[in-house]
Write a structure and sequence with these properties.
With 618 residues, this protein is mainly beta. Helix content is 10%, strand content 39%. Among the domains are: 25-97, Type 1 dockerin domain, CATH 1.10.1330; 408-506, no CATH class; 509-616, Sandwich (Immunoglobulin-like), CATH 2.60.40. The chain has 5 helices and 51 strands. Helix 2 (42-52) runs antiparallel to helix 4. The longest helix is centred in the first third of the chain and has 21 residues, at 2-22. Mean pLDDT is 87; it is low at 1-26 and 100-105.
């Protein structure tokens, strides 16, 4: 009996050893668990990607587990399947659903390989269109499987993913229909030439188009993404753009709104999201002939645009004539959390004829214009930082389009501005509050300047609670120069300038300072003869005050209805005692002009050099 019990114990011990070994067999690991940690996770998909890139070596056990869809191969499809199962978009594969089983369904994508389309060579037979048509008919994507295809104009009604498309001359990839998309595709135009009317990727009558995780590179002025017919609810995210043009929605040239010789005159659509995209154009400006993002729709007015979390590195070179993010005749815009630098053209962020704008928490550096706002109605510019730009905020009404109305500029930082921190005209029912303006610029313009405009008068603007920090040496600079009606200046903190050194007037105020030759008699009165007083050489209403033997100045209000300029000369009471040039002639203006001029639509300040007097010239 004792021998029987001993035998049973021995058998049980051996069985336990067998069970222990089998616990680590393939059957006890989850399909896809290539890192053998007992669970299916994104780490397994990453390990398979490393295996495909030949950066890791799998054991035989791992190879079997890596064939997640059970088709006998290890490829990117297994990675995609794991991601979909983790995201609960698909069920775990089984032998019955395996592509190698007798009842296996068709692939859930189409490849160019199935149509014998060769990679890395021009598609002279236009086979790629057949690939797209087959995918659209089956309702599945086209999978480029990481390869490169050179294509001519093709029309896609399906998703395209995972590869590179190089656009042939005068061609485009046209996306059309509902829910068409590009995902993880590199788009490039490899030939030199102009393709502006086509676009690398053209959106035509789309609804719900998604372009994500793509890159665009072009050697031409052709837009990377272009629409001039209609696109509704477009999303462009996680994409990079280099060289060439960026994104263009444009109905500005009505006769060119054609596709396949059909003219489109209706709405260009609504709804555009551009998020987390990079416009890296340091080598060659995106704005070579356009903008990073341009929505220009004067005929049908696009609406509902969001541009967020984007980065633009411009080239800041002379051919760079475009802008960063530009919107013209667009309604309902959100532009926030973006960073732009080195934009040479007319506004890193440019709104023109827009309504209902929210522009917040953007950063603009080292550009010509930080923010440009033209005849826009209903806008909030809040908590933006503009650093090292020539013009900080440029806000101008424009004839015959209209006023800038109901605009709030609040909590912005305009720093190290090299010319005009805040400059504009024709601002109405608006506010400039709680901003910081810092500059050392010795340019005559005021730090906050709302200048005279004959067509559009500034009205009802509040300038309250701003901090002005001036570190330059131009002592005559106004901290504010506002020509308008019903404007209020309160509680502004001024350092580096006289707090009372401002103008708030319904008429332009002009200040002219003279540098005089040493032979100017102190006893003589100096007069301004100008287009304001019918060139009277001894008008007692326009006399200069002598501030030293060689300096004088005059300040006066312009009450006459003048378009822009005043022409003038200086006399000592008669034309026989008027100023002259170094040759004794009366051409005293710039570049040989007869007279000096001052632009009353500017800062209202000018400094004039008197060379000599006619009666003293020898």
């Amino acid at each position: 009996m004792r021998k029987i019990i001993s035998l049973i114990i021995s058998i049980l011990f051996v069985a336990s050893l067998i069970l222990t070994v089998s616990a680590y067999s393939d059957e006890d690991f989850i399909n896809g668990d290539v890192n053998l940690d007992g669970r299916l996770s994104i780490a397994d998909a990453t390990e398979i990607q490393k295996k495909l890139a030949d950066t890791v070596v799998f054991t035989e056990q791992q190879k079997k587990l890596a064939d997640f869809n059970l088709d006998g191969e290890i490829n990117i499809i297994d990675v995609t399947k794991i991601q979909k199962v983790i995201g609960k978009l698909e069920e775990m594969p089984s032998e019955s659903t395996s592509p190698t089983s007798a009842t296996a369904p068709a692939k859930d994508y189409v490849t160019p390989d199935e149509f014998s389309l060769a990679a890395d060579t021009p598609d002279e037979m236009r086979i790629f269109q057949n690939v797209l048509d087959a995918a659209a008919e089956r309702g599945v994507p086209v999978n480029l499987e990481g390869r490169t295809y050179y294509i001519y104009t093709s029309e896609a009604r399906c998703e395209i993913m995972n590869g590179t498309l190089k656009i042939m001359p005068s061609s485009s990839l046209v996306l059309t229909g509902d829910n068409v998309s590009l995902k993880n595709v590199n788009i490039s135009r490899w030939w030199d030439g102009d393709g502006y009317e086509n676009g690398d990727v053209r959106l035509h009558l789309t609804n719900g188009c998604v372009i994500e995780d793509c890159s665009f590179s072009s050697q031409t002025v052709c837009p990377s993404i272009f629409c001039n017919t209609s696109a509704v609810n477009t999303t462009i995210r996680n994409c990079t753009f280099s060289e060439g043009f960026g994104i263009l929605f444009n109905d500005g040239n009505a006769e060119n709104r054609k596709y396949n010789d059909v003219l489109y005159t209706g709405t260009i659509g609504k709804g555009l999201i551009v998020d987390n995209c990079i416009f890296n154009t340091e080598g060659k400006a995106v704005q070579y002939a356009g903008d990073n993002i341009e929505v220009n729709t004067p005929n049908c007015r696009f609406s509902d645009v969001q541009v967020t979390n984007c980065v633009s590195y411009g080239a800041k070179t002379s051919p760079n004539v475009g802008i960063g993010f530009g919107f013209a005749q667009v309604d309902n815009i959100v532009c926030s959390e973006n960073s732009l630098s080195n934009i040479e053209g007319s506004g890193a962020i440019h709104m023109e004829g827009c309504t209902n704008v929210e522009c917040k928490n953007n950063e603009v550096k080292n550009s010509m214009y930080g923010i440009m706002c033209l005849y826009t109605k209903g806008a909030l510019y809040d908590r933006n930082t503009i650093d090292g730009c020539e013009y900080g905020i440029h806000c101008v009404s424009q004839y015959p389009y209209g006023f800038d109305e109901e605009i709030s500029f609040s909590n912005n930082n305009v720093l190290n501005c090299t010319s005009k921190p805040f400059w504009g005209s024709g601002l109405k029912n608006s506010e400039i509050i709680n901003n910081v303006f810092q500059t050392d610029c010795n340019y005559p313009s005021a730090i906050i300047q709302l200048q005279y405009s004959k067509s559009y008068e500034t009205n009802n603007v509040s300038v309250i609670g701003n901090t002005i920090e001036y570190t330059g040496s131009f002592s005559d600079k106004y901290w504010a120069y506002i020509v308008g009606t019903d404007c209020v200046l309160n509680d502004n903190k001024i350092t580096g300038l006289n707090p009372s050194g401002f103008v708030n007037s319904s008429n332009p105020i002009v200040k002219i300072k003279l540098n005089l030759p040493a032979n100017t008699p102190m006893s003589d009165t100096l007069y301004l003869a100008s287009s304001l007083n019918s060139w009277n050489p001894a008008d007692s209403s326009y006399t200069f005050t002598r501030t030293s033997e060689t300096t004088a100045e005059i300040t006066f209000i312009v009450t006459e209805n003048i378009d822009d300029e005043i022409e003038y000369k200086v006399t000592r009471g008669s034309w026989e005692k008027s100023e002259c040039n170094a040759s004794g002639l009366g051409n005293v203006g710039e570049y040989g002009a007869m007279n000096h001029t001052i632009d009353i639509c500017g800062s209202g300040y000018v400094q004039t050099e008197i060379i000599n007097w006619t009666d003293f010239y020898k």
